[in-house]
Prior knowledge:
Layout: E1 17-19, E2 23-26, H1 33-47, H2 60-75, E3 80-87, E4 93-106, E5 111-118, H3 127-140, E6 147-153, H4 157-165, E7 169-179, E8 185-193
Parallel strand pairs: 5-6
Antiparallel strand pairs: 1-2, 2-3, 3-4, 4-5, 6-8, 7-8
Amino acid sequence: MRVMPADDPLLIEVPERLETARLLLLAPRAGLGPTLNRAVLDAQEHLKPWMPWAHETPSVEQSEAVARRMQAQFLQRQHLAYYLHEREPDGQPGRLIGGAGLHMLEWTVRRYELGYWIGPAHVGRGLVSEAVVALARMAFGPLRARRLEIRTDSRNASSRAVAERCGFSLEGLLRDDALNVNGQLSDTCIYGMISINELIDPLR
């Protein structure tokens, strides 16, 4: 008798560790507060134009609460966040430099939205694209995705470049779709992918 994959999201095996050539993507865990806090503070000014949460300077305790909340959401299959760590030569996790993950999880449709951020010292090295490729492979693999999306402010050239570099297709522009961090109306670009065959690994 063939065993079908679990339909209850809580029964889906989601890896808590993804490896790439230069990164380790690790699921959130308790005790990460100080490390996460340092990474957020390093990236704060760089992310302020795009991320509302970057406008508040968190304490270590607040960052610890975020890590624990993200861990709970990961276990509940509500938000599959990963933190990006540089991979040491021995394969161990090094410095935490950013985050990426799948959110807005529509388990019935198997549609997931992919998001990412990274500190300014690591921009331009292709690390975000490397993380996106790893997440897309997981999504179309064990998570049986039928559709992946990346949504970004139309003015966010860096975020749009990552989506296009990895093979996502620009499917539409939603005019005056959202309020930006300054409370002004902004346009949203929707990038989509419906097959692993569309994925491009920029490092190959």
